[in-house]
Amino acid sequence: TMKIIMDTDPGIDDAAALTMAINDPAIDLKLVTAVAGNVTVDKTTANALKIVHFFGKDKEIPVAMGAQQPLIKPFEDAARIHGASGMEGYDFGDDYGEPIKKSAVEALHDAIMAEDEVILVPTGSYTNIALLFSQYPEVKSHIKKIVAMGGSISGGNMTSIAEFNVFTDPDAAKIMYNSGVPIVTVGLDVTLKALITSETLNALKTMNETGKMLYGLISHYNDVSGDGHPMHDVNTIFYLLHPEAYTTKKLWVDIQTDGPAIGGMVADIRGAYHDGKTNAEVCVDIDADAFNKWFLEEVSHMK
Ligand code: BDR
Ligand code: CA
């Protein structure tokens, strides 16, 4: 099994990504950390706890609270997309437990150092990871790779160039991309193609309790594209389990941290400026049918 740690800001697509990671037998989810992003960090932490508790994994999977705000840029949420709580559309009750006492950075440090090799999966902005790398650079050699939702080399969803997770904390993104840890970029280039179709959504509705929960959340998700909802963060988990469904390109990517292109990702597509060196494997295409089929198949095995 793959040992992974998720750093998230649930968020409806984060909730779906957690759902997949918690339930797939090929994945061993060691820790969930929360960061401010789609909503404030107290809410993203509560939402992560709700999903872990929904699947009865409170004992096995600790949840730790992380950064309240980006490193430098003022915090702006995305409640207009994910609703006031960040996870509208399903009643998880009031009793979903508490985060552990350790901060996200301390919890990440301890969980990563306890393993020889772990995969880090950020689906929010990268503030916790930037703080971790600055404070505890020794963790880097224990991270096999980072599979990160965020960025885009083909246009943004916040500005013409910037994607939300990178836009929220561009300074953190820059630190992560310059860290030397291998990174797979799962950005809008693929996530805007991996739509949950209305057919898939309807099939979820009556499948089981998990299907009902996801149906509720996704029906309240204001991220709509044509006939479907982009399941951005879920692509990190689909990539881990089915890399063959993605086409990737090794590139050097830089992050813009100020000016009108703030939060933008610039790829050296000709390899002209970095002596052919690369710092990311960028996902550029995906088999969207396979994604929908897999999504339903996964949920069909859940509670
Ligand atoms: C990203 O932004 C967030 O709103 C989503 O959860 C996803 O991580 C997509 O740009
Ligand atoms: Ca997210």
UniProtKB/TrEMBL annotation:
GO molecular function, one term: hydrolase activity
Superkingdom of origin: Bacteria
Keywords in alphabetical order: Glycosidase, Hydrolase
InterPro entries in the record: Inosine/uridine_hydrolase_dom, IUNH, Ribo_hydro-like
Record carries keyword Disulfide bond: no
Inosine/uridine-preferring nucleoside hydrolase domain location: 4-292
Designated name of the protein: Ribonucleoside hydrolase RihC
Record organism: Limosilactobacillus alvi
Gene that encodes the chain: rihC
